[in-house]
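Chapter review. Work through the record for Glycosyl transferase family 2 before attempting the end-of-chapter questions.
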Amino acid sequence: MSVLQVLFYFFIVITIIQYIYYICFLNFFSLLKSTKEQQKNIPISVIICSKNEAENLKQNLPKIINQNYDNFEIVLINDNSWDNTLDVIEEFAAKYQNITVVDVKPIEQFWGNKKYALTLGIKASKYEFLLFTDADCAPASDQWLKEMSSHFSNEKSIILGYGAYTKIKHSLLNALIRFETLMTAMQYFSYAKMGIPYMGVGRNLAYRKELFFNNSGFMKHMEVKSGDDDLFVNAIANNHNTAICISEESFTISEPKKTFKDWVIQKRRHISTAKHYKPLHKFLLGLYFFSQFTFWILVTILLLFLYQWKIVLVLLGLRILIQFLSIGLAAKKLKSSDLIIFIPFLEVFLIVFQLAIFSANLISKPKHWK
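C-alpha coordinates for Glycosyl transferase family 2:
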Protein backbone atom coordinates (compact mmCIF):
# COMPACT_ATOMS: atom_id res chain seq x y z
CA MET A 1 0.00 0.00 0.00
CA SER A 2 1.48 3.34 -1.07
CA VAL A 3 1.83 6.39 1.17
CA LEU A 4 -0.74 8.29 -0.89
CA GLN A 5 -3.22 5.46 -0.54
CA VAL A 6 -2.81 5.48 3.24
CA LEU A 7 -3.28 9.25 3.29
CA PHE A 8 -6.38 8.91 1.13
CA TYR A 9 -8.03 6.43 3.51
CA PHE A 10 -7.03 8.60 6.46
CA PHE A 11 -8.58 11.57 4.63
CA ILE A 12 -11.89 9.70 4.31
CA VAL A 13 -11.92 8.98 8.07
CA ILE A 14 -11.10 12.60 8.94
CA THR A 15 -13.76 13.87 6.53
CA ILE A 16 -16.42 11.65 8.11
CA ILE A 17 -15.46 13.01 11.54
CA GLN A 18 -15.87 16.54 10.19
CA TYR A 19 -19.29 15.64 8.74
CA ILE A 20 -20.41 14.33 12.13
CA TYR A 21 -19.32 17.48 13.95
CA TYR A 22 -21.01 19.90 11.56
CA ILE A 23 -24.20 17.85 11.35
CA CYS A 24 -24.34 17.84 15.16
CA PHE A 25 -23.81 21.62 15.25
CA LEU A 26 -26.50 22.01 12.59
CA ASN A 27 -28.99 19.82 14.42
CA PHE A 28 -28.43 21.01 17.98
CA PHE A 29 -27.90 24.73 17.41
CA SER A 30 -28.03 26.11 13.87
CA LEU A 31 -31.57 24.81 13.25
CA LEU A 32 -32.65 25.46 16.85
CA LYS A 33 -35.46 27.96 17.31
CA SER A 34 -35.17 30.50 20.11
CA THR A 35 -37.86 29.76 22.68
CA LYS A 36 -39.67 32.56 24.48
CA GLU A 37 -39.72 31.77 28.18
CA GLN A 38 -42.24 33.23 30.61
CA GLN A 39 -40.94 36.41 32.23
CA LYS A 40 -40.33 35.80 35.95
CA ASN A 41 -39.03 39.17 37.18
CA ILE A 42 -37.01 37.49 39.94
CA PRO A 43 -34.65 39.68 42.00
CA ILE A 44 -31.23 39.54 40.34
CA SER A 45 -27.73 40.87 41.02
CA VAL A 46 -25.69 42.07 38.04
CA ILE A 47 -22.00 41.68 38.84
CA ILE A 48 -19.30 43.61 36.98
CA CYS A 49 -15.60 43.30 37.81
CA SER A 50 -13.60 46.32 36.62
CA LYS A 51 -9.89 46.94 36.40
CA ASN A 52 -8.92 50.27 34.82
CA GLU A 53 -12.29 50.54 33.07
CA ALA A 54 -13.33 54.14 33.88
CA GLU A 55 -14.24 55.12 30.31
CA ASN A 56 -16.02 51.86 29.53
CA LEU A 57 -18.11 52.18 32.69
CA LYS A 58 -19.14 55.71 31.76
CA GLN A 59 -20.29 54.48 28.38
CA ASN A 60 -21.86 51.11 29.19
CA LEU A 61 -23.19 51.30 32.74
CA PRO A 62 -26.19 53.54 31.84
CA LYS A 63 -27.43 50.81 29.48
CA ILE A 64 -27.51 48.39 32.41
CA ILE A 65 -29.01 50.90 34.83
CA ASN A 66 -31.81 51.58 32.35
CA GLN A 67 -32.85 47.95 31.92
CA ASN A 68 -36.59 47.37 31.72
CA TYR A 69 -36.63 45.32 34.91
CA ASP A 70 -38.23 45.97 38.28
CA ASN A 71 -35.99 44.37 40.87
CA PHE A 72 -32.23 44.27 40.37
CA GLU A 73 -29.01 45.54 41.87
CA ILE A 74 -25.65 46.22 40.26
CA VAL A 75 -22.53 45.13 42.13
CA LEU A 76 -19.56 47.12 40.83
CA ILE A 77 -16.17 45.70 41.76
CA ASN A 78 -13.05 47.84 41.53
CA ASP A 79 -10.19 45.35 41.26
CA ASN A 80 -7.24 47.47 42.39
CA SER A 81 -7.45 49.90 39.45
CA TRP A 82 -4.82 52.61 39.04
CA ASP A 83 -7.00 54.90 36.89
CA ASN A 84 -10.14 56.67 38.18
CA THR A 85 -12.38 53.58 37.98
CA LEU A 86 -13.26 53.79 41.67
CA ASP A 87 -14.23 57.47 41.32
CA VAL A 88 -16.55 56.65 38.41
CA ILE A 89 -18.11 53.76 40.33
CA GLU A 90 -18.72 55.91 43.40
CA GLU A 91 -20.27 58.68 41.27
CA PHE A 92 -22.78 56.20 39.85
CA ALA A 93 -23.42 54.74 43.31
CA ALA A 94 -24.21 58.21 44.66
CA LYS A 95 -26.91 58.64 42.02
CA TYR A 96 -28.48 55.16 42.08
CA GLN A 97 -29.51 53.33 45.24
CA ASN A 98 -29.38 49.88 43.61
CA ILE A 99 -25.60 50.04 43.08
CA THR A 100 -23.27 48.31 45.55
CA VAL A 101 -19.55 49.15 45.52
CA VAL A 102 -16.84 46.60 46.29
CA ASP A 103 -13.33 48.03 46.40
CA VAL A 104 -10.78 45.21 46.28
CA LYS A 105 -7.39 45.87 47.85
CA PRO A 106 -4.43 43.77 46.69
CA ILE A 107 -3.20 40.97 48.93
CA GLU A 108 -0.14 38.90 48.19
CA GLN A 109 -1.90 35.53 48.01
CA PHE A 110 -4.43 36.61 45.37
CA TRP A 111 -2.61 39.46 43.63
CA GLY A 112 -3.93 40.08 40.11
CA ASN A 113 -6.54 37.34 40.46
CA LYS A 114 -9.95 38.25 39.03
CA LYS A 115 -11.55 35.25 40.72
CA TYR A 116 -10.73 36.67 44.15
CA ALA A 117 -12.31 40.01 43.24
CA LEU A 118 -15.39 38.31 41.82
CA THR A 119 -15.76 36.18 44.95
CA LEU A 120 -15.87 39.33 47.08
CA GLY A 121 -18.49 40.78 44.73
CA ILE A 122 -20.62 37.65 44.91
CA LYS A 123 -20.44 37.68 48.70
CA ALA A 124 -21.57 41.33 48.69
CA SER A 125 -24.55 40.69 46.40
CA LYS A 126 -28.05 40.67 47.91
CA TYR A 127 -29.87 38.29 45.61
CA GLU A 128 -29.79 34.59 44.87
CA PHE A 129 -29.67 34.96 41.08
CA LEU A 130 -26.46 36.37 39.62
CA LEU A 131 -25.84 37.75 36.12
CA PHE A 132 -22.27 38.49 35.04
CA THR A 133 -20.91 40.80 32.39
CA ASP A 134 -17.78 42.90 31.82
CA ALA A 135 -17.22 46.64 32.02
CA ASP A 136 -16.48 46.82 28.29
CA CYS A 137 -19.82 45.15 27.46
CA ALA A 138 -23.21 46.70 26.87
CA PRO A 139 -26.57 44.92 26.65
CA ALA A 140 -27.96 44.76 23.12
CA SER A 141 -31.38 45.88 24.43
CA ASP A 142 -33.20 46.97 27.56
CA GLN A 143 -34.68 43.45 27.69
CA TRP A 144 -31.36 41.78 28.54
CA LEU A 145 -32.21 41.15 32.19
CA LYS A 146 -35.68 39.86 31.34
CA GLU A 147 -34.43 37.51 28.66
CA MET A 148 -31.56 36.00 30.65
CA SER A 149 -33.46 35.67 33.94
CA SER A 150 -36.48 34.07 32.25
CA HIS A 151 -34.52 30.85 31.70
CA PHE A 152 -33.99 30.23 35.42
CA SER A 153 -36.25 27.54 36.88
CA ASN A 154 -36.31 25.03 39.71
CA GLU A 155 -34.10 22.82 37.55
CA LYS A 156 -32.03 25.30 35.54
CA SER A 157 -29.38 27.07 37.60
CA ILE A 158 -26.89 28.09 34.90
CA ILE A 159 -27.80 30.24 31.89
CA LEU A 160 -25.34 30.53 29.00
CA GLY A 161 -25.67 33.74 26.99
CA TYR A 162 -23.94 35.18 23.94
CA GLY A 163 -21.34 37.93 24.03
CA ALA A 164 -20.97 39.50 20.59
CA TYR A 165 -18.39 41.98 19.31
CA THR A 166 -18.99 45.24 17.46
CA LYS A 167 -18.58 45.01 13.69
CA ILE A 168 -15.85 47.15 12.12
CA LYS A 169 -16.01 47.41 8.34
CA HIS A 170 -13.02 46.51 6.17
CA SER A 171 -11.07 45.04 9.09
CA LEU A 172 -9.54 41.57 8.76
CA LEU A 173 -8.78 41.45 12.48
CA ASN A 174 -12.37 42.30 13.34
CA ALA A 175 -13.68 39.60 10.99
CA LEU A 176 -11.36 37.03 12.59
CA ILE A 177 -12.36 38.01 16.13
CA ARG A 178 -16.06 37.83 15.31
CA PHE A 179 -15.65 34.54 13.41
CA GLU A 180 -13.75 32.96 16.31
CA THR A 181 -16.47 34.20 18.68
CA LEU A 182 -19.15 32.76 16.40
CA MET A 183 -17.43 29.36 16.18
CA THR A 184 -16.89 29.19 19.94
CA ALA A 185 -20.52 30.07 20.62
CA MET A 186 -21.80 27.55 18.07
CA GLN A 187 -19.82 24.87 19.86
CA TYR A 188 -20.66 25.66 23.49
CA PHE A 189 -24.35 26.15 22.69
CA SER A 190 -24.42 22.89 20.69
CA TYR A 191 -22.67 20.90 23.40
CA ALA A 192 -25.03 22.33 26.01
CA LYS A 193 -28.05 21.21 23.97
CA MET A 194 -26.45 17.78 23.55
CA GLY A 195 -26.30 17.49 27.33
CA ILE A 196 -22.55 18.02 27.76
CA PRO A 197 -22.10 21.75 28.53
CA TYR A 198 -18.45 22.66 28.84
CA MET A 199 -18.11 26.46 29.01
CA GLY A 200 -19.73 29.88 29.12
CA VAL A 201 -18.43 33.41 28.62
CA GLY A 202 -18.14 35.93 31.45
CA ARG A 203 -19.48 38.65 29.15
CA ASN A 204 -22.93 37.10 29.48
CA LEU A 205 -23.39 34.35 32.05
CA ALA A 206 -25.87 33.75 34.87
CA TYR A 207 -26.08 31.28 37.74
CA ARG A 208 -27.45 30.85 41.26
CA LYS A 209 -25.37 32.07 44.19
CA GLU A 210 -26.21 28.84 46.05
CA LEU A 211 -24.60 26.84 43.24
CA PHE A 212 -21.45 28.93 43.54
CA PHE A 213 -20.98 28.41 47.27
CA ASN A 214 -22.11 24.78 47.30
CA ASN A 215 -19.28 24.04 44.84
CA SER A 216 -16.63 26.03 46.75
CA GLY A 217 -16.69 28.87 44.23
CA PHE A 218 -13.49 29.22 42.23
CA MET A 219 -11.29 27.38 44.73
CA LYS A 220 -10.63 24.41 42.44
CA HIS A 221 -8.95 26.70 39.92
CA MET A 222 -8.02 29.74 42.00
CA GLU A 223 -4.37 29.44 40.96
CA VAL A 224 -5.33 29.71 37.26
CA LYS A 225 -5.25 33.37 36.27
CA SER A 226 -8.24 33.12 33.91
CA GLY A 227 -11.26 30.83 33.73
CA ASP A 228 -13.67 32.52 36.12
CA ASP A 229 -16.31 31.77 33.50
CA ASP A 230 -15.45 28.68 31.45
CA LEU A 231 -13.66 26.69 34.17
CA PHE A 232 -16.45 27.29 36.65
CA VAL A 233 -19.09 26.20 34.12
CA ASN A 234 -16.94 23.26 33.06
CA ALA A 235 -16.76 22.04 36.65
CA ILE A 236 -20.43 22.32 37.65
CA ALA A 237 -22.61 22.39 34.51
CA ASN A 238 -24.52 19.29 33.47
CA ASN A 239 -27.42 18.16 31.34
CA HIS A 240 -29.98 19.01 34.04
CA ASN A 241 -28.89 22.37 35.44
CA THR A 242 -27.89 24.28 32.29
CA ALA A 243 -29.97 26.29 29.79
CA ILE A 244 -29.02 28.55 26.90
CA CYS A 245 -30.43 31.96 25.97
CA ILE A 246 -29.99 32.95 22.31
CA SER A 247 -32.60 35.64 21.66
CA GLU A 248 -31.14 38.75 20.06
CA GLU A 249 -32.41 40.88 22.96
CA SER A 250 -30.27 38.83 25.37
CA PHE A 251 -26.92 39.51 23.67
CA THR A 252 -24.19 41.68 25.10
CA ILE A 253 -21.90 43.62 22.77
CA SER A 254 -18.23 44.40 23.41
CA GLU A 255 -15.58 46.46 21.68
CA PRO A 256 -13.06 44.06 20.08
CA LYS A 257 -9.30 44.33 20.30
CA LYS A 258 -7.83 46.80 17.83
CA THR A 259 -4.43 45.15 17.23
CA PHE A 260 -3.31 41.59 16.56
CA LYS A 261 -0.90 41.83 19.51
CA ASP A 262 -3.70 42.61 21.98
CA TRP A 263 -5.88 39.85 20.53
CA VAL A 264 -3.04 37.31 20.78
CA ILE A 265 -2.49 38.20 24.44
CA GLN A 266 -6.22 37.81 25.13
CA LYS A 267 -6.52 34.47 23.30
CA ARG A 268 -3.39 33.05 24.92
CA ARG A 269 -5.01 33.64 28.29
CA HIS A 270 -8.33 32.13 27.19
CA ILE A 271 -6.87 29.06 25.50
CA SER A 272 -4.61 28.32 28.47
CA THR A 273 -7.66 27.31 30.52
CA ALA A 274 -8.65 24.49 28.18
CA LYS A 275 -6.12 22.08 29.67
CA HIS A 276 -8.15 22.20 32.90
CA TYR A 277 -11.38 21.02 31.23
CA LYS A 278 -12.87 17.60 31.93
CA PRO A 279 -11.28 14.76 29.91
CA LEU A 280 -14.34 14.24 27.68
CA HIS A 281 -14.49 17.93 26.80
CA LYS A 282 -10.78 18.06 26.03
CA PHE A 283 -11.10 15.01 23.82
CA LEU A 284 -14.08 16.34 21.83
CA LEU A 285 -12.61 19.82 21.37
CA GLY A 286 -9.17 18.42 20.56
CA LEU A 287 -10.57 15.96 18.03
CA TYR A 288 -12.52 18.75 16.32
CA PHE A 289 -9.42 20.94 15.96
CA PHE A 290 -7.25 18.00 14.90
CA SER A 291 -9.78 16.92 12.26
CA GLN A 292 -10.03 20.49 10.93
CA PHE A 293 -6.27 20.91 10.68
CA THR A 294 -5.67 17.44 9.24
CA PHE A 295 -8.50 17.79 6.73
CA TRP A 296 -6.94 20.79 5.00
CA ILE A 297 -3.44 19.31 5.08
CA LEU A 298 -4.64 16.09 3.46
CA VAL A 299 -6.78 17.90 0.89
CA THR A 300 -3.74 19.93 -0.16
CA ILE A 301 -1.44 16.89 -0.44
CA LEU A 302 -3.90 14.69 -2.33
CA LEU A 303 -4.84 17.42 -4.81
CA LEU A 304 -1.21 18.38 -5.39
CA PHE A 305 -0.47 14.78 -6.38
CA LEU A 306 -3.84 14.42 -8.17
CA TYR A 307 -4.46 11.23 -6.20
CA GLN A 308 -8.13 10.21 -6.45
CA TRP A 309 -8.73 13.89 -7.08
CA LYS A 310 -12.33 13.48 -8.25
CA ILE A 311 -13.35 11.73 -5.03
CA VAL A 312 -11.37 14.25 -2.98
CA LEU A 313 -13.15 17.16 -4.66
CA VAL A 314 -16.57 15.59 -4.11
CA LEU A 315 -15.87 14.99 -0.42
CA LEU A 316 -14.42 18.51 -0.12
CA GLY A 317 -17.48 20.01 -1.79
CA LEU A 318 -19.89 18.10 0.44
CA ARG A 319 -17.95 19.10 3.54
CA ILE A 320 -18.02 22.77 2.52
CA LEU A 321 -21.76 22.55 1.83
CA ILE A 322 -22.53 21.05 5.26
CA GLN A 323 -20.19 23.57 6.88
CA PHE A 324 -21.85 26.51 5.12
CA LEU A 325 -25.27 25.31 6.26
CA SER A 326 -24.13 24.77 9.85
CA ILE A 327 -22.05 27.92 10.31
CA GLY A 328 -24.21 30.02 8.00
CA LEU A 329 -27.43 29.39 9.92
CA ALA A 330 -25.58 29.90 13.21
CA ALA A 331 -24.18 33.18 11.90
CA LYS A 332 -27.65 34.33 10.92
CA LYS A 333 -28.97 33.42 14.37
CA LEU A 334 -26.12 35.31 16.06
CA LYS A 335 -26.34 38.33 13.73
CA SER A 336 -23.03 37.72 11.93
CA SER A 337 -24.32 36.93 8.43
CA ASP A 338 -21.69 39.15 6.79
CA LEU A 339 -19.05 36.52 7.67
CA ILE A 340 -20.65 33.65 5.77
CA ILE A 341 -19.04 34.31 2.38
CA PHE A 342 -15.56 34.27 3.96
CA ILE A 343 -15.96 31.03 5.96
CA PRO A 344 -13.25 28.90 4.21
CA PHE A 345 -10.65 31.66 4.38
CA LEU A 346 -11.45 32.58 7.99
CA GLU A 347 -11.44 28.92 9.02
CA VAL A 348 -7.96 28.26 7.61
CA PHE A 349 -6.58 31.46 9.14
CA LEU A 350 -8.12 30.62 12.52
CA ILE A 351 -6.64 27.10 12.45
CA VAL A 352 -3.16 28.51 11.86
CA PHE A 353 -3.69 31.16 14.53
CA GLN A 354 -4.86 28.65 17.14
CA LEU A 355 -1.94 26.35 16.36
CA ALA A 356 0.43 29.28 16.93
CA ILE A 357 -1.30 30.10 20.25
CA PHE A 358 -1.05 26.49 21.46
CA SER A 359 2.65 26.47 20.59
CA ALA A 360 3.30 29.81 22.33
CA ASN A 361 1.54 28.61 25.49
CA LEU A 362 3.78 25.54 25.59
CA ILE A 363 6.82 27.80 25.66
CA SER A 364 5.64 30.36 28.20
CA LYS A 365 2.61 31.01 30.38
CA PRO A 366 0.22 33.89 29.57
CA LYS A 367 0.02 36.77 32.03
CA HIS A 368 -2.79 37.57 34.47
CA TRP A 369 -6.09 39.08 33.34
CA LYS A 370 -4.97 42.73 33.20
